[in-house]
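Recap from last week: sequence in, structure out.
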Amino acid sequence: MCKQLFLALLSLVVSSCTVIDYSHIARPPIPKDLWEYHYVEQGRVYQVCSQYGMFPEACMEWGKGDEKCHIWLPLEAPKWMIDHEEAHCMGYNHLGEQHE
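Predicted structure tokens:
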């Protein structure tokens, strides 16, 4: 029991997931027909997304030479994770972020 509690707390500490600030849109939304989903192994997610956080579970990229919003997710991403990255495509940042 203690080991499970410790591991749960550790995962919260090292997770780079943060809360979306829905109070304002940081940039214009990207149209949904330009959203491209990449469901890949977690190692590939880390390779692509590590520039955005220490221990990324997922991320979105845009402005990489096309007009698309690229959503990088692990193969069996839960709905909350998909929703979180889609919110970035809709123009929202993390709570407290003042930049892209």
